[in-house]
């Protein structure tokens, strides 16, 4: 794996560590719903889904 791909994955992991930390998670703890889901759960799963997509993009460029 190239060094820049490793660096991108490390940056992604560190940013997810910060985003899933308690002070940042509590920002999304609001009343209300988005598409019928509570805002808290919607934001957590959206961040999780985006991290999977970003990881896929980084790794797919590695295997080209």
Please identify the structural class as seen in this structure: mainly alpha
Question: End-to-end span in angstroms?
Answer: 11 Å
User: Tell me about the biggest sheet?
Assistant: 2 strands, antiparallel
Overall shape: it is elongated
Residue fraction in strands: 5-15%
Number of helical segments with 4 or more residues: 3
The total count of strands amounts to 2
Descriptive notes:
With 64 residues, this protein is mainly α. Helix content is 70%, strand content 6%. The chain contains three helices and two strands. Strands 1-2 form a two-stranded antiparallel ribbon.
Keywords:
70% helix; two-stranded antiparallel sheet; mainly alpha; single chain; 64 residues; 6% strand
């Amino acid at each position: 794996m190239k060094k820049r791909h490793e660096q991108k994955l490390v940056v992604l992991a560190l940013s997810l560590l910060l985003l899933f930390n308690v002070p940042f998670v509590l920002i999304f703890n609001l009343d209300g719903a988005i598409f019928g889901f509570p805002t808290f759960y919607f934001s957590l799963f959206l961040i999780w889904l985006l991290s999977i997509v970003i990881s896929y993009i980084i790794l797919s460029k590695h295997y080209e």
